[in-house]
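Hi R.,

Here's the input for the 6-O-phosphono-beta-D-fructofuranose complex you asked about:
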Amino acid sequence: MERIGVLTSGGDSPGMNAAIRAAVRGGLYHGMEIFGVERGYEGLISGEIYRMDRRSVSDIIQRGGTILKTARSEAFMEDEGFSMALNMLDSFQIDGLIVIGGNGSLTGALKLADAGIKVIGLPGTIDNDLPFTDYTIGFDTAVNTVLGAVGNIRDTSHSHDRITIIEVMGRECGDIAIYAGLTGGAEIILIPEREADIQSICRRLVEGKNNGKRSSIIIKAEGVNMSTEELERSIRERTGLDAKMVILGYIQRGGSPTARDRMLASRLGYEAVDLLRSGAYNKAVGVRGGKTVSYDLSEAMRMKKTSVADLDVLADILSR
Ligand code: F6P
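And here is the predicted structure with 6-O-phosphono-beta-D-fructofuranose in place:
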């Protein structure tokens, strides 16, 4: 294995740069040639590929985003685009490819693996929705960003005796909501894995008020079956309490990665090249119980995510 490509794909996440750095410098350390592919699979199709050296990844470990840029590529999932990507890998004589991204990106990596390309998938997404790893690169930073916002909102919410609904990212996975909700002391956490019940939400808020709570925080993941606007309106109408909503949006995807995310990214980025070097490929690399693990990519993509939903029960007990 001599010529390795690396790309980031899908939604960016803090720590992707640290993973690129580890893959590039780890690969160079082992005498490989490393090529950066820009804009994910889109750049693979159009040949936006350049050779990287140690200085290509200087001063990036602390930066959010991805120096390789990213994209969500529909063309790659179609026959024409896919075969152009294969041709490009062939033209650049790339023997192995490291893909850093979320669910869709690793599904793309599996498609390449099935076509005979040697790939390694790294979990890069703030959502923490990949079942083969306890944590994804970027999740910890996103949770801490949300936590900072919860703290600020709590101050003003308390001053105004108000209920604030904070919408966080997570279309199908409630991990950001649960981790930020539990650690931010939210009274109510709403996640896509559970149906939101307006009656019990309102009952909980009124009980809180009767028990002397002057303000409450609701953390709601974007994928919950009720829109945030509807939730705000229903709470006002049903309880007469002052409710306001805040959508945190893309602020959650940026920012300097935390130490945890830099550590995870550095370990997994290096592990990816080490696997390729030792002849292991078509793997997804993650972390379990603090240890680096790797699974066959197809097996990893078939795994079911263990829900952390029981943590919202704990959050409920602790926030009454
Ligand atoms: O990166 C994952 C994620 O942040 C999801 O939580 C969110 O729904 C989605 O990306 C939105 O990303 P975009 O608007 O870039 O498609």
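One thing worth noting: Residues 11, 102, 125-127, 169-171, 222, 253 surround 6-O-phosphono-beta-D-fructofuranose (CB under 6 Å).

Cheers,
M.
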